[in-house]
Amino acid sequence: MILENQISKTQNIPSPQLKINKDYKSQQFSSLNTSHQSIDQENQYPQEGKLLNFIMELEELQQKSIFNLTLNSLSLEQQKLALTDDPNNSQLRRQLQYNKHYYQEFQSSLQYENVYLGNCLQNQKVSQQLRSRMVDWMIEVLGNYNETTTNATFFRSVSIMDYFLLKSNTQYSDQHLHLIGISSMFIATKLEDIYHIPLQDFVLRVGHNKYSTIKVKGMEQIILETLNYEITFPTILDRLYNLYYQCFSVNNDTNLQNILEASTYILKMCLHDYSMNTFHANTLAASSFFYSICDFVISKDYQHQDQIIDQFSKRITQISEINLFEFNQCQGKLKELINSFKKKYPDLQNLDKFS
């Protein structure tokens, strides 16, 4: 598991849509989910039965036509309808107010907490190649803790590492990156996971006693102080989830979840490539999401493919508030990376192994 070990050559990378062969791992976005009441609660609140029927009808409608983009913020709209039917239902009103407030906070965070991580190595002596190996190694480390960690932990780890390298006035070299990566993962798991990876695991199992507890904790403190403890900014994964829920809301359709998983896979691929980080996180998230949708639409041989793809292109750029020229430019670079990834990074195989 040591970063410096030679990694065997990767196998051919399949199409992102074909790559997804595992069950979707739900993420913690409970604030956007509609609360489903139990049978007892339905009997107690007759109007809630209407709400559940309405939800079922909408979900059935989504499964028949998954490209209906009028379902934005579906959970909030459902609860608004319930309140219209029963304005005295205090439980639903409190839930609506809470969800609305949380949703507004999340949207505000996406809009104003913009952390640009491009050119993070410009003042460092860390090579782009070793950074790519570190990203791949992080996938391996966190993949071995997949019972307690999520994709959010990985994306947070890379973001913290890149942000630290960007903000630090100290010049680091390749020999320091291993410790920086370990400490970044240690911070990320405590932030994202309910049961975080213990410090001793990072020292013994991950670092193989190369760094002591004091060393890992010391670098953790340096990272936190350098970033002024600003480590909760939205990651590129958060921006992808925002796009997904804005377009499809809380739908459990397998095809839609495969699109989300494919988009996540592509974003992991992008994090390996330093040149892709020059694009803003919104643009990268939008490009990966759009690529996965196009791949899905084309693979299913739907009628009116051009109209469907054009509709999604307009919707995604509208939600992301991104420049159309940059979006198209990123699409081109993304396709190049997907087609050349195995040739460009022949020794990095953990993306396939742990996805």
Short summary:
This protein is mainly alpha-helical and 355 residues long. The protein has 3 domains: 30-112; 128-226, Cyclin A, domain 1 (Orthogonal Bundle), CATH 1.10.472.10; 235-353, Cyclin A, domain 1, CATH 1.10.472.10. Helix content is 65%, strand content 0%.
How does this model look, in words?
It is a single chain. The chain has 355 residues and is mostly helical. It has 3 domains: 30-112; 128-226, Cyclin-like (Cyclin A, domain 1); 235-353, Cyclin A, domain 1 (Orthogonal Bundle). It has helices at 16-19, 39-44, 46-64, 74-85, 90-112, 128-143, 151-167, 174-192, 199-206, 213-226, 236-248, 254-272, 281-300, 305-320, 324-344, 350-353. α6 runs parallel beside α8 (174-192) and α7 (151-167) crosses α8. The longest helix is centred in the N-terminal third of the chain and has 23 residues, at 90-112. Keywords: Cell cycle, Cell division, Cyclin. This is Cyclin-like domain-containing protein. Belongs to the cyclin family. Residues 136-225 form the Cyclin-like domain.
